[in-house]
Write a structure and sequence with these properties.
97 residues; alpha+beta; six-stranded antiparallel sheet; 2 helices; 6 strands; 35% strand
C-alpha cells in the first residue's frame, strides 16, 4: 500500500496532534493520546501522528496514489490552519511503496 510521511519541526507537536484528532473525531473513530493519534479516513485510508519533542511526524497510507496526494493536501492544510501563529514552512511529504 502506498504510504507517505512528513516531519514538521515544531515545539507544539502534541498540541497540534490533539487539535487535528479532535477536529476529525466528529466524523471518524479517532484514537489519540498526547503523543499518538490515528485517524481512519475510510476503510482503507489512515493517517497517524506522532508527537516528538521537536517535531510532528505524520504518516498516511491508502491504496490509491491519487487519494494519497489528496489526503496529504488535506492534512497539511488543516495543520497549517491550526498552526497559524507559527511558521511551519513547507510541509514536504516523502513517499514509500
Amino acid at each position: 500500500m502506498p504510504t507517505s510521511q512528513a516531519r514538521v519541526h515544531t515545539a507544539e507537536a502534541s498540541r497540534y496532534l490533539q487539535q487535528l484528532c479532535r477536529h476529525w473525531s466528529h466524523k471518524f473513530p479517532v484514537e489519540s493520546t498526547p503523543q499518538h493519534g490515528k485517524v481512519p479516513f475510510g476503510e482503507d485510508r489512515v493517517c497517524t501522528f506522532e508527537a516528538e519533542p521537536d517535531a510532528l511526524v505524520m504518516r498516511i497510507a491508502t491504496p490509491d496514489p491519487v487519494g494519497l496526494t489528496r489526503l496529504e493536501n488535506v492534512v497539511a492544510d488543516h495543520l497549517a490552519r491550526f498552526a497559524f501563529r507559527e511558521s511551519l514552512g513547507d510541509i514536504t511529504w516523502s513517499r514509500a511503496a
